[in-house]
Amino acid sequence: MLKECLENVRKASPLIHNITNYVTINDVANVLLACGASPIMSDEAEDAAQITSICAGLNINLGQLHKSGVEGMRRAGKKAAELGHPVLLDPVGVGVSDFRRETAYMLMQEIRFSAIRGNASEIHALAEGRRSARGVDTDAEVETGTEMEREAAFLKAFSAQTGCVIAMTGAVDLVADDSRCFLIRNGRPQMSRVTGTGCQLSGLMTAYLAANPERKLEAAVSAVCAMGLAGELAWERMKEGEGNATYRNRIIDAICLMTGEELERGGKIERL
Q: Alpha helices, DSSP H only, in 177-259?
C-alpha cells in the first residue's frame, strides 16, 4: 500500500493548488516538489477558480485567514469539487477565534472536502464547536489504548458525518474513514520544533490523494507515514552543531530521497 501510493505520486506528478499561510508557504512548495508533485499558490478570489481548474488537487489552509482569501477558498473549493478533484481542509487554529470557526463551517457547508487534517485540538474544536486556548499547538495527545479506541470511534463518526477522511496528527497519528482507523507511530518529537511540518503534511497529503483517487484512506495513511518517516531519517542524519533550521531542510531532503521500498519497510501502522 505505502510503496504504491508513493510511486503513484512520482508517476502522476500532480499539480497542487495551495491556499496556505504565508509563514510556511515556501516549505509547502518545496515538500511538494520533493515528493514528485508540483505546487502553485493563489488565494486571490479573481483567479482562484481558474487556477484550481488546471490542477489535480486543492489544499486549503486556515493558518493566516483574511476576508479576501476566504472568498478565494470558497470559489476554488467549489470549482475543484465540481471537477472531482480532491480537496483537503487544514483547520489551523480553528478553535481560537470565531472568524476561523465560522469560516471553516461555511467552507464545509459549501465544499465537498475529501480530507481534513489537523492536530487533536483542531479536530475536536471543528467537530464539537469548542474553543482551544493553545492556538495551533495541540492541547491533547492520545496515549493509552482506551484513549486510542475512543478517539478511533470519534474519528469514524466524524468521517461518517462529513464524508471526509480524517487525519488527526500529533505524537501518534490516527487516520480514519467511516469504517476503518489506522494508528501510525512514525515521527520524532523534535518535529514540533520546526514551524510548518503540519502544513507541509497537508500539501503532501493532497498530492497523495490526487495521485491515488480511488484509495483516499490509503493515500492519507501513506502521506502521514512518509512525513513521519522523513522526520526519523532526517534526525538520524543530524550532526553536532545543527539545529531546527537544518532539521527542516533534512526533512524535505528525506521526502525527496525516500523510495517506495523504504517507506514500506519504515511505516509503523496498526489498524484499530
A: 197-211, 216-236, 244-257
In contact, 175 and 167? CB cutoff 8 Å: yes
What is the distance between the alpha carbons of residues 176 and 99, in angstroms, rounded to a whole number?
27
Which 8-state DSSP code applies to residue 193? G
Estimate to the nearest angstrom the gap between the alpha carbon of 90 and the chain centroid.
6
**Gap between the Cα atoms of 147 and 234, Å rounded:** 30
* pTM, full prediction: 0.94
CA distances to 4, 101, 243, 254, 265 from 92, rounded to whole Å, are 30, 10, 25, 25, 31
Strands 87-90 and 181-184, by their bridges, are unpaired
233, 258 contact by CB (below 8 A): yes
| Cβ atoms 133, 139 nearer than 8 A | yes
218, 181 in Cβ contact below 8 A?
Answer: no
Residue-wise pLDDT tens digits, 28-72 = 999 999 999 999 999 888 999 999 999 999 999 998 888 888 999
Note whether 176 and 258 are within 8 A (CB).
no
> What is the C-alpha separation between 62 and 224, in angstroms, rounded?
20
Which domains does the chain possess?
2-271 (3.40.1190.20)
Q: Which residue has the cell 464539537?
A: 128
Cα(242)–Cα(223) distance, integer angstroms: 26
Residue the block writes with cell 519504515: 266
Which residue has 492519507 as its cell numbers? 220
H helix count then E strand count, the chain:
11, 9
